[in-house]
Specification:
Strand order of the largest sheet: 3-6-9-12-15-18-21-24-26-27
Strand content: 35-45%
Shape: globular
Oligomer: single chain
Number of helices: 0
Length: 184
Amino acid sequence: MVRQDGAIIADDVTIGPYTIIGPNVTIGKGTTIASHTLIEGHTTIGENNTIFSHAVLGTIPQDLKYNGEETYLKIGNNNTIREHTFINTGTAGGGYNTIIGDGNLIMGHVHMGHDCIIGNNIVIANSTVLAGHVEIANNAVIGGISAVHQFCKVGEYAMLGGGSIVVQDIPPYCICEGNRASLR
């Protein structure tokens, strides 16, 4: 690991041009970060992640209760985070952490609000928005252009159809779709 302007970056990390990495960021080995990316705040990124251009990771939460306290974003290993994805840190009300597990595909233009907890091996398709405090369990699939209301939980192996609006929990092993999403 190499300390660069306060950030801790593994020796073999690839960082594209015009990328900004803040002083409290830690990036694990084998990670590739494309150009024009912003990673700031107290953000820890594990090993072998691929982050595409124009992603914004670790910025302060979009929550009126946020009052400058130290909050965190923790990203596991082997994730793919595509273009223009936006992921906030946590808040005091959510345990200070936004957490992303391992092996996830987060497609382009995804917004992930504060205090989300994302498990492992999840697919979140393009232009999806997750409000604060959303939890998605392992192996779930979230269809594109969907929205998940704050405090909702998506169970493991659940599948949400594209263009859906989720305003209540989705049980494990279920297929849901629609505005307001219901079991199919």
